[in-house]
DNA sequence: AAGCGTCCCAACCGCTGTGTT
DNA sequence: TAACACAGCGGTTGGGACGCT
């Protein structure tokens, strides 16, 4: 979706990722890890910049990504942490199992912010007192979230102050063990990663499942149930370049593996 | 059914932080 | 210590999806 596919001045592809690109990226990262995002696309056969690859992997392709509706518990955590931390989306996302900073940020801007502002507006309409001269933009009712909002939040007259005052920062034991995106990145680059479906890959619906199946089909039905290994038997010395690996010299997927062939 | 407006979210951009030389 | 390279983060964009008229 989103941006029209195009190329930058160096011929790097931009815009929506294709299933084929996803397969190449998954295949490479699962086998070799993220030893260098800048160099990775060259070896993985992708005409993408490293940044784009990193973003795609962290926000969409890596295991344990949780997609779909947010639970009220997750939203409470986001709201509370945002009150405490501000727009530290990566820090907030680190406390939510399977959620990415980008996703949390999007959810905040599209749902939670409006909801909080509306609740604030309701509260202030009882006694309208502004303690400063800042213009507060109150969303029109048509701008408010529609039926996608979880029922408990949509129906409840909940305000920020009514949310249970649990300070998650003060209770690390309440935090989920899910590593942050940066932690995952370093994991995949530095250590052997063994991730199984039992670790919490969540596919929320059939459509998502089908899409994942399209992407991962080439890896066999047991891709997510077999141990997920970033084979680092080559990089125990701390650095490994896959230049000499036959499957990355010869296309494992199709004839245009080498992006020069496009 | 068609046109229009709004929403959602994947992806890009630019800046900052960190590590290395 | 400066310069450079790379990773990570947060703000923003833009186009498909969806709802309304």
Automatic annotation (TrEMBL):
Cell compartments where the protein resides: Nucleus
Chief location bin: nucleus
Keywords: DNA-binding, Nucleus, Repeat
GO terms, molecular function: DNA binding
CDD domains xrefs: SANT (cd00167)
Tagged with keyword Repeat: yes
Gene3D superfamilies registered for this protein in UniProt: Homeodomain-like
Ranges of residues in domain HTH myb-type: 13-61, 62-116
Disordered: annotated span: 127-146
InterPro entries: Homeodomain-like_sf, Myb_dom, Myb_TF_plants, SANT/Myb
Protein name (Swiss-Prot/TrEMBL): Putative transcription factor MYB-HB-like family
Species this chain originates from: Rosa chinensis (China rose)
